[in-house]
Design goal:
α3 crosses α4, α3 runs parallel beside α5 and α8 packs across α11. The radius of gyration is 23 Å and the shape is globular. It folds into 2 domains: about 210 residues, P-loop containing nucleotide triphosphate hydrolases (Rossmann fold), CATH 3.40.50.300; about 70 residues, Alpha-Beta Plaits, CATH 3.30.70. With about 325 residues, it is of the alpha/beta class. It has a 6-stranded mixed beta sheet, sandwiched between helices. Strands 2-1-4-5 form a 4-stranded antiparallel beta sheet, with helices on one face. A 4-stranded antiparallel beta sheet has the order 12-13-11-14, covered by helices on one side. Bound molecules: adenosine-5'-triphosphate and magnesium ion. Magnesium ion (MG) binds next to α1. Belongs to the ABC transporter superfamily. Drug exporter-1 (DrugE1) (TC 3.A.1.105) family.
């Protein structure tokens, strides 16, 4: 049985750019899928196709069992969307923004008001609730936009980079909100550029690059493919790089040590965590190798990319997406018949 979100062979081109180049997805009900990828990978385009804001050139997708191209209005009634760029009405207060969403969804005025107050509190916007949104900081807008997506509790939610631009405290709090939502049975597709975020929230992760899913699995599976944890050592004296590498090789899985001459940095994939770190320090010390820094590092999106594609995620930035507003209104209309 197809999941709450299901896509097969989604293709979307913009001129020469194949923003989606045959994407397949399946998100079982009540689970979280993390769409992880660098700038320009196609994450927003995928979200926009699945939320009926863009019509795919080909392929097929259903959300809550409903075809997104054939029945966009029905799909819209089953979903909540928090876009990459906060969509709040600048001239309304935070409270009015939330009440308006409730009323759009046919909530009674009193219920919409109560829900708005509850969400302002939950997203730490109560003090600013009666100020117009144009006076809000970036992080406050982001939070207001997410609150707006939660006014009604739709069975399927889409969040496009929900925590980009939030400070660590607000990010952690949003993660808690998301986990509560999912515990309540919501199915969620979220996009992110951070492996850590996908790791924390998602049951399954799809890594996208150039409009294609290049890997899928749980965070642990992806990290294992990347070599899991690694020990990084910066030796004090460049002359010690070779002997340091020899020592690290003995601790490494398979022994591949990466040496960066200019930063005097040695890196090796390991298993065994902090205990191993202490052993490495002892061994380096015993051989008289002075170090400037040592640490245990978990793989980043960059490491995942490097190992999957042979290139770093940063190289993609030249393809950076333009503002969403660039879309021709025609595209939106096509789907709302
Ligand atoms: N409306 C558009 N017109 C032209 N090209 C577009 C449009 N929307 C997206 N693209 C292109 O499609 C590709 C995928 O863009 P998309 O916005 O889906 O990437 P993304 O993964 O969301 O990136 P980011 O992390 O920067 O948000 C990019 O090369 C982008 O320039
Ligand atoms: Mg995007």
């Amino acid at each position: 049985m197809p999941g709450a979100i299901h896509a097969e062979g989604l293709v979307k081109t913009f001129g020469d750019v194949r923003a989606l180049d045959g994407v397949d997805l399946d998100v079982p009900e009540g689970t979280v899928l993390g769409l992880l990828g660098p700038n320009g990978a196609g994450k927003t385009t995928a979200v926009r196709c699945l939320t009926t804001l863009l019509r795919p050139d080909s392929g097929h997708a259903t959300v809550a069992g409903i075809d997104v191209v054939k029945h966009p209005n029905q799909v819209r009634r089953s979903i909540g969307l928090s876009g990459q760029f906060a969509a709040v009405d600048e001239y309304l207060t935070g409270r009015e923004n939330l009440q308006m969403v409730g009323e759009l969804y046919q909530m009674k005025a009193k219920a919409a008001k109560a829900r708005a107050a509850e969400l302002l509190e939950r997203f730490h916007l109560a003090d600013a609730g009666d100020r117009t949104a144009k006076t809000y900081s970036g992080g406050m807008r982001r939070r207001l936009d997410l609150a707006a997506a939660l006014v009604v509790s739709p069975p399927v939610m889409f969040m496009d980079e929900p925590t980009t631009g939030l400070d660590p405290r607000n990010r952690q709090e949003l993660w808690d909100v998301i986990q509560e939502l999912v515990a309540g049975g919501t199915t969620l597709l979220l996009t992110t550029q951070y492996l850590e975020e996908a790791d924390h929230l998602a049951h399954d992760i799809c890594v996208v690059d150039h409009g294609r899913v290049i890997a899928r699995g749980t965070a642990d599976e992806l990290k294992a493919r990347t070599g899991g944890e690694r020990v990084e050592v910066v030796v004090h004296d460049r002359a010690h790089l070779a002997s340091g590498a020899e020592i690290l090789a003995a601790f490494g899985k398979g022994g591949q040590v990466t040496t960066e001459q200019h930063t005097r940095r040695l890196t090796v994939p390991v298993t065994g965590g902090a205990k191993l770190l202490a052993e490495v320090i002892r061994e380096l010390d015993a051989r008289g190798i002075e170090i400037d820094d040592i640490g245990l590092r978990r793989p980043t999106l960059d490491d995942v990319f490097l190992s999957l594609t042979g290139h770093r995620a940063e190289e993609e930035k030249k393809d950076e997406a333009g503002p969403e507003a660039e879309d021709s209104p025609k595209d939106t209309k096509e789907t709302s018949k």
